[in-house]
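Support reply, case 0932

Customer input (verbatim):
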Amino acid sequence: PRLWTESENLPYFIREPYEYYIVKILDSEFLLMLESEGTHLTPAGIENHIRHVSKSWDGEVIYISRQIKSYDRRRLIEHRVSFIVPDNQMYLPLLGLDLREYYKKASSGITRISPSTQAVIVYSLMRGVGHRFVTKEFTSKLRYTPMTISRAFDEIELLGLGSCRYEGRERILRFNLTKKGLWAEAEKHMRTPVKKRLIVEDSAKKYLKIGAGLTALAFYSNLEAPDRTVFAVSSEYWNKIRKSPDVREAHYKEKGTYDVEMWFYDPALLTNIDIVDPFSLFLSLQKDEDERVHSSLKYMMEHIEW
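Our regenerated output:
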């Protein structure tokens, strides 16, 4: 790249915040607006500056910054403002190049992902990670808002598990890893889905559909089924059914009662059968001290179709 000397003729308010360079890409010249360190500009301000610079430059202008926050990035993309974050992000619509983003895990600052992000990853593992995932699929299948899914996508990108790009206004997610690789990396940041454990009387059974805990582990392995069936429900579903006179909590584990796990996300949305998915099940039981449980969990994970 070479300095763009004509920048000296620009108004002070758009000359001072940047350094200007000319670079050649695919036989065409582009003007780079390199944001000065310590400068903090809004997307609207950047777009306005590019519009002024374009009066003196007959070609594409590319905004360069060392860091762009996710919400600012979305606004720049919505307005089709070309930008580059060196070694991290690139959006050049004129060249047909869309956003690619890879964050260093050490600097992501995430130790535990949110329950909604965990649900998105588990759903993707169950479906197959080689797919192209769109926001609408998750809002439809997992019943989260677009904003919640967008935040989940952000967390997935921050951990380097996947990358996103836009097609129009639709955000597209692709995972960077194989199914087994994704699980190995994501599991480090996941939590048990169980928020609370309850005991309920037999009259509540008609409301309970999804087997969990040792009941589910017996389904996925050679472990003997427990004497008392374990079920899983979402917090929202439990708050709904608990109002029924048939749903009564019990104080003791005795014949005619069931164990109920209240989950942070809806277990029914992540499985096609009446048993919780194996990934969430592993997370719910991994701290169990029984060696038979650990042996059965290992068996289950080894027999997943990776």
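We compared this against your earlier run and they match. Two observations from our side: The longest strand covers residues 18-25. Residues 102-107 have pLDDT under 50 and may be disordered. Please reopen the case if you see a mismatch on your end.
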